[in-house]
Amino acid sequence: xxxxxxxxxxxxxxxxxxxxxxxxxxxxxxxxxxxxxxxxxxxxxxxxxxxxxxxxxxxxxxxxxxxxxxxxxxxxxxxxxxxxxxxxxxxxxxxxxxxxxxxxxxxxxxxxxxxxxxxxxxxxxxxxxxxxxxxxxxxxxxxxxxxxxxxxxxxxxxxxxxxxxxxxxxxxxxxxxxxxxxxxxxxxxxxxxxxxxxxxxxxxxxxxxxxxxxxxxxxxxxxxxxxxxxxxxxxxxxxxxxxxxxxxxxxxxxxxxxxxxxxxxxxxxxxxxxxxxxxxxxxxxxxxxxxxxxxxxxxxxxxxxxxxxxxx
Length: 312
Ligand SMILES: O=C(O)CCC(=O)C(=O)O
Ligand SMILES: [Fe+2]
Known about the structure:
Pfam families: PhyH (PF05721). The protein is α+β, with helices and mostly antiparallel strands. It has two domains: 5-264, q2cbj1_9rhob like domain (Jelly Rolls, Sandwich); 276-312, no CATH class. Helix content is 24%, strand content 21%. It has helices spanning 11-16, 22-34, 45-55, 78-84, 87-97, 177-190, 294-306, and strands at residues 36-39, 69-71, 101-109, 118-119, 125-127, 132-138, 149-151, 196-198, 205-209, 213-216, 228-235, 239-241, 270-271, 274-275, 277-280, 285-288. It has a six-stranded antiparallel beta sheet with strand order 1-9-6-11-3-2. Helix 3 (45-55) crosses helix 4 (78-84). The longest helix is centred in the middle third of the chain and has 14 residues, at 177-190. It is globular, with a radius of gyration of 20 Å. The two termini are 37 Å apart. The model has no long low-confidence stretch (mean pLDDT 92).
């Protein structure tokens, strides 16, 4: 199957063919079954303190004030980059996905996000599917008070729902997003998934698979911080796109410009390892097959951009 082996319906057979330590076996089985993996004390407190002192001034004093969230601070701070490319975490991801991991986006939060249930697969998907995951690092302890993470164990096995599935149109802003969140909440409830809240210590790491439904609990404790970093990862050898902004009906994918945080280099889209050229036409970045010629390329662009199919 063209899927990560930990997501394969043939996982049990594949597991027999792997030469793993008991600890590795436990990790991959848990990830396969539950869709997440908790690694306790996997990031040094020294690195976390360095990151906190770098980014502290980027945030307002109080919960609710903006900006509560910063995307891609890795471009500015080496400590954020280091958190996103921890060798030991990369090794665990290689074990789980058997492809080279690509950290491509960081989000740093001072306060709990209180985000409603969602799967990251609405924002980031790949072809072949599911070569994506989130890695959440606790930069301080999370408790019932400061808006800890929650997830629905085993929800990763569900279909990757997109806007088309629930009858709303692709969009660049977030106007329709609450409809998607409502759908996900209702779907979890109607299908018997149980929400679990997780409390973590500074230095603990949670890996969630691309389609695990998760979010942030309400902040109950008033003006309390919840410093955290999420890094989103892709894996080599895929096409990378954003379902939320793609027209899934006509298969017009909003391809992403992916930069590998660990190397600073742009990542080549590819079809099972064969390079795919892409053309940025504004809203959509079109894919052109790996064996294209100039006329084929022109034809594709003309057809996609003005909807006219040239007779050559
Ligand atoms: O930190 C949180 O509360 C949730 C973050 C999240 O869902 C994400 O970054 O994908
Ligand atoms: Fe998320």
